[in-house]
Amino acid sequence: MSEQEEFRGWVDVDWEAARATNHANWQDRVRVHTPAYGLDRYREDPGYLSDVVRHDLARLEPLLPSGSVAGLDLCHLQCHLGTDTLSLARASARVTGVDFSADALAVASRLAADTGVDARWVESDVMVAAQAVGTDFDVVYTSIGAICWLADLRRWAEQVHALLRPGGTFYIRDGHPVLLALDDRSDQLTLRHRYFGDGTADAWDGESSYVGTDRLTSTQSYEWPHPLSEVVQALLDAGLQLLRMEEDTVLPWQFSPRMVEVEGGWAWPEDERALVPCTFTLVARRP
C-alpha cells in the first residue's frame, strides 16, 4: 500500500479480468521500479546479495539436505525484476525466474547479462508455472508481496508441488495476513481490512507504487486476503509436508509511516512490536 493508494471496496470479479488488470498494473510498475530498485549495486559489487535473500537463506539452507542451495535447481516464482533471483544465483543455485510481466523479465535478463549471471527467465502466470517451466526442481522459492495477488491458493500450491522433485523443498516468506488487515495510515494499530476472505477481491486504485517517484498510468489492481490457515492447508492438501513455520516482527518494507527502521528492515515502535506479526515464513517438502 502507498500514500496515494485508495481502497475501493470488496468486489466480485472474474479471475481472468482481475489478472488482466493486475498484469497491466505490474507492467507499468516496471518503469517506476527499475530506477528505484538499486540495480547498480548488483553491477558494481559481484558479491552483493539482496537483504531479502540474505535473510531467507539463513532460514532455508539449514533445512536443505545438502545444507546449501549451491548446485541446486531453484525456481523463483513471481520474481519481478529478478534481483532476488540473481542473488540466489550468486549463492550458487541454478536459477529459473518466473513472472507474468514480460517487461520485468526484460529488466531481469539485462541485469543478469550485465553481471555475468547465468539464469533462465520464463514468462508465465504462476497458476500454470509447471506447464510453462517444466518440473524437477530441488527448491521452489517465493518471497514478499506475492500471494495476495492470487485468488486460488489451492491451485497455486498444486503448481508448487508439481514443480518440485520428490524430496524437494518449498520456501515462502510473505507479509503476515494480520499485518495486511491493519490500516497503514492510522496513528495506532487499527484493523481496517479483512483477515478472512470469501472469494471476493479487494479493489485498489492508486497512482504510486511502494518504491519510485513516477506516477502509474495503469492504476487499478485487485488483491485477495488469505488467512495463515488457508496458506498452510493449501500446501498440506497439495501433498507437501510442513518443516518449519515462523512469524516475525520485522518487515523488508515500510508498511506504515509509523514504522521505524531497525536491523533487517522496518518494525512497529518498540512498545507495539510484540502486538502484531509482520511476516510469516513456511518451509515445506515434497515427500
From TrEMBL:
GO terms for biological process: methylation. CDD domains: AdoMet_MTases. It holds the Pfam family Methyltransf_12. Gene3D superfamilies: Vaccinia Virus protein VP39 (3.40.50.150). InterPro entries: Methyltransf_12, SAM-dependent_MTases_sf. GO terms for molecular function: methyltransferase activity. Keywords: Methyltransferase, Transferase. Residues 77-170 form the Methyltransferase type domain. This is Methyltransferase domain-containing protein.
